[in-house]
Amino acid sequence: MEPTTILLGTAFLVCAYMAWNIGANDVANAMGTSVGSGALTLRRAIIVAAVFEFTGAVFFGSHVTETIRKGVLDFGDVGFTEELSQKLMYGFMAALLAAAIWLTIATRFGMPVSTTHSIVGGVIGMGLYIQPSSVNWDKVIEIVLSWIASPLLGGILAFVSFFVIKRLIFNSEDPFLQTKKLAPILALPTFFVLGLAFQFKALKGFYSNLDNAGYINKETWLPAKEGTTFNPFADGAWIPINSLVVALAIGMLASLILWGVLKRYQFKEEGMAGVEHVFIWLQIITACYVAFAHGANDVANAIGPMAAIYDIATSTTGTLTDGNVGVPLFLLLIGGIGITVGVATWGYKVMDTIGKKITHITPSRGFAAEFGAATTVLIFSMPFLAVPISTTHTLVGAVVGVGLAGGAGAVDFRVFGKIAASWVASLPISAAGAVLFVILFAGSPINVAIVTLSAIAITLAIVMRPDKVEKKDLLMDTPYETLDSTPFDMFYEHAKSVEKTVTHMLTAVTVASQGKDASKHIKATISAELDADNIKTDLRNHIGTGVRIAIGRDTFLHMLSRQDRIADYAQNVAEQISFRELMVDDQARDNLKIMAEAVHKTVEKYSKAVDQLNVLTQSGFAPMQMAVLNDLIMQVNILEHKADECESTAAAYVFSEGDDKPLAAMHMYRILQRLDDVANAAEKAANAFLPMLNK
């Protein structure tokens, strides 16, 4: 077999491997927040991402690419000699392999890193080895600065976006109705920005292809890099009028479609559930855009170095084409298929980090994060900056930004710290790996094949270990949020279990007051209390894993303890009933039943307060939602007072009519006391929420 054939065959393998890693890691940019919010199931997210990534990569990926990614290497005006080109061919191979292996390792630990920065790091490393003076350190510094600038701006814009949603929607008297009114208005600027970003990022290669074919002048469609002007009608405009018109048309069309859908759609949900349902649509659309744009733009991270290798290997002179090189369609297919397979096989790992581990994501927060990220990418794409940024870094910053809208405690900065550390490590690790592989290749195609196959095999053998969570469970066609409930979701689940315990207790009291056998209902009460205890234990264990809560761990556990006492006291009532027959007096028994019903109403209202607490945390502690919770807490207190009045009436009657049967009267009074304990526990549990109203 010819040496060139061996080299090219190995290079195609590495190119596909790199594309697989891009799909497995970078896909979180598109779908991580959608999965984390429950807008898409994991399986559906993988399907959607695969379709849009492949479409963007194959049909809209550029048919030309830079020979040196992001301009990090500069060999001057001497051109590429045969000797230098041959060295670069092996160097590009080493850079591609080093970046791909680093991405595999990062993905294994669920770390979202920049594929662009990984391949740039590899290129820098091989450049330092081949010709140290070729490294453009000014460009490297720009890339390093983007580590700080892009997530910071993405976080700020996402925070502001969610603040607007919070102020205009969550802080209204009827958030659901307000969402239906404002969603089309929010869609216009959102999709205007997406329309611009779509053209400048996803369609950049497409416009270039049309320009090469003579159909358009790309200068009137893409931002000007030189001789810029604010006037969109002038030559060399920052943003040409053609692009502005297309973006505005996209925004208006999206607004009209959304308005029409909201007008005719019959929602099953109302309140906060209805609000988030609307944002699910917006989030899915923005996620599809990000996936499409990513496939069209970032496929070059895999096929760019491969195109350079192919150009040198097939050149009659053995030299690299100066500037840009052509990208054959089959390379785009390799890139598109590789990305698709990566999404489908391993994309869930980084999705889990983006969607769940940094902070709790709802559809409204996911939408704000994706809008903030898209806007940041657009801003940094403009000629007045033209800084190479990572969509990964930007989106992670945006997720942190929306998380901070719920308080600093809502963000797990330990996870973010690990992610940031992986960002810093990307360049040096990829650079060092590229240098190592260049040395091991030693300019021999045989060595390239042996080293490459060995390195990939060893890496996969080490990192591809079984996950703690079975993949088949993650791929179930159920909302992702059901697989990993938030602490407040579990808190509400515990509250409903507590309410169920009280309901069984009420039934037991009612049946016993009728002189019937209540043993079945007593057992049901005890069983429900045990279920509540199990949920409490699970929730405590969940909190113990380091989950961040906006209100603080100690405060949350205090609230949980208060809530659990309601069920404990309800069980005491049921047990008290089981000790002996109730006092034989119809009025006394009726008073007992009235007391139990008053207690049950108190607990019911408390359960509604817990539901509102969940709404409050989802809204980012909007003042209006605070007011609603405060009102529910006051209602719990009022109902508890009414229960106290019922107890006073019932106890007075028992002691006035129970002289002839003191034991029965004392037994009835003990039951009344335990019922009062239930109501008091509900009141104290509700009042435990009051400190949060000062957030």
Key structural traits:
695 residues, mainly alpha, Methane Monooxygenase Hydroxylase, Chain G, domain 1, 2 domains, 2 strands
Main sheet characteristics: 2 strands, antiparallel
Distance between the termini: 72 Å
Structural class of the helix and strand makeup?
A: mainly alpha
As a whole number of angstroms, the C-alpha radius of gyration is: 32 Å
Query: In oligomeric terms, what are we looking at?
Result: single chain
How many strands in all?
2
List SSEs in N-to-C order: HHHEHHHHHHHHEHHHHHHHHHHHH
Mean pLDDT: 85
Offer a quick outline of the entry.
The protein is mainly alpha-helical. It has 23 helices and two strands.
Tell me the layout of helices and strands:
Layout lengths: L2 H24 L1 H10 L4 H19 L3 E3 L15 H27 L6 H16 L6 H34 L4 H28 L1 H9 L28 H24 L6 H28 L1 H15 L9 E3 L2 H29 L5 H19 L9 H14 L8 H29 L3 H19 L7 H4 L12 H27 L5 H26 L8 H27 L6 H33 L4 H35 L4 H26 L8
Antiparallel strand pairs: 1-2
